[in-house]
Amino acid sequence: MQRDGARARDLEARLAAVRKRIATAAEAAGRTAPELIVVTKYFPSSDVRILADLGVRDVGENRDQEAAAKAAELDDLALTWHFIGQLQTNKAKSVVRYAHSVHSVDRATLVAALGKAVAAEQERRAGAGLGARDDLECFLQFTLDAAATSGGRGGALPGEAGALAEGVAATAGLRLAGVMAVAPIGTPPAAAFERLLRIADSVRAVDPSATAVSAGMSGDLEEAVAAGATHLRIGSDVLGPRPAVG
Ligand SMILES: *Cc1c(COP(=O)(O)O)cnc(C)c1O
Known about the structure:
With about 250 residues, the protein is α/β, with parallel strands linked by helices. The protein is built from nine helices and eight strands.
């Protein structure tokens, strides 16, 4: 009990500090504060429960096995799960059971797999007497490394934006939300996010409602807010340093 109370106070203070940074950055940029997605990967579901008590609704995970287990354990909570990690096509079926969105859609084969998986999930739900799920929100992930010559692992190339966006727009069960990126190491994040915002323009040319921009992590949230991010994915500054992967 004592230890849980200490963890709750720790998370409360860290969360408040992050929310304050977001509000300050939004005000400085003259923008609406983006949505905060708290990235809970590697941390136990007890932490997610504390965060839910503190008003967190959106959580991000990057590994299907871990995310599926947490979502099942916490299904009494009204949480929105965002899948933000590299996704193998054979995991699509599992991910659509709990995820509201996938931020890492980076290739046509994954678009097809997610479309098929949502269709199968709707059938499963109907068969089990459950209501239908919402369309899966898809963020197209791009690599912002100017030297990258091939996409597909951890982000498509900017030149692939139009075709990927059209692929999502044409797939039943998927909704094109917008774009996502991780700022590359060794480049100023502001310049990287400017590139992402230009890619976002070409995605919106395909679907004007695809206005979401998922950018900004613990180390670059201010730059992301300034550039016009609509969704921030913050892990360590809310939860503390990640435990070593076992
Ligand atoms: C882990 C992760 C984050 C959160 O990173 P922090 O630096 O801990 O805030 C955000 N986005 C992706 C894709 C991640 O894998």
